[in-house]
Amino acid sequence: MEEMDGLCVRDCTRCPELVESRSRIVNGTGPDDAELVFLGEAPGANEDSEGEPFVGRSGSVLDSALRDVGLARADVRITNCVRCRPPENRDPKKDELANCRGYLETELRRVDPSLVVSLGKVPSQHLLGRSVAVTKEAGTVEDVRIGEESIRALVCLHPAATLYDRSQKETFEEVIARAADVAGVGEGDGGQSSLGDF
Ligand code: URA
After folding, report:
1. pTM
2. Whose CA is closest to 138, among 121, 163, 115?
């Protein structure tokens, strides 16, 4: 595995198809000591062109849910299971997930967050190391082992799920509120008290 430069991978050619389809490596963004880390699947077209995770429509959904609980994007860290855009936005393959795993583990170990929120099926299964029914399990917390350490993980829907199915929007927002609460950041249950302020 190529060395990481802090939390960033500068050069990697382990996945031939991804080297072909990417225009750059998309590293995680946000504070290097964030309490809350969001984990997506892989960069899409927007992320590949801008070099930052979740900057397309899914990113707007995430940003807006964060705002609702008093958090800005800059308050959290956002990263992906795989750092290079798969061709035609297909799911990352098993070996590609495995090739990028060490980078993710290093990033999580170095950031040492209170909570990692997995956004969707692929990242939830990758993080938890088991099959996950995301809709059913959304909002559940469990501890997972990353090498020698244990890290707290929370299953969440992928933000894009709210774009195709409006009924998922509420669930998504509830899970983000729970994430802020578990990580001890944002307004916690401040939604109610801030209503009372007006
Ligand atoms: N979806 C993801 O899973 N990751 C991104 O970075 C953007 C969209």
Report:
1. 0.93
2. 121
Atom of ligand 1 nearest to the CA of 26: 6
Q: Residue 1's pLDDT band (boundaries 50, 70, 90)?
A: low
Domain 13-182 has CATH 3.40.50.720: no
Ligand 1 atom nearest residue 53's Cα: 6
Q: How many residues does the chain have?
A: 198
Residue nearest to atom 8 of ligand 1 (CA): 54
Separation of alpha carbons 196 and 198, rounded Å: 5
Residue type, position 146, single letter: I
DSSP 198: -
| Helices 121-128 and 94-111, packing angle to 10 deg | 70
Q: Which of 58, 83, 96 to mutate to test the pocket of ligand 1 (most atoms within 8 A of CB)?
A: 58
CA of residue 193 to ligand 1 center, whole Å: 33
Using one digit for the tens of pLDDT, what is the confidence trace for 140-154? 999 999 988 999 999
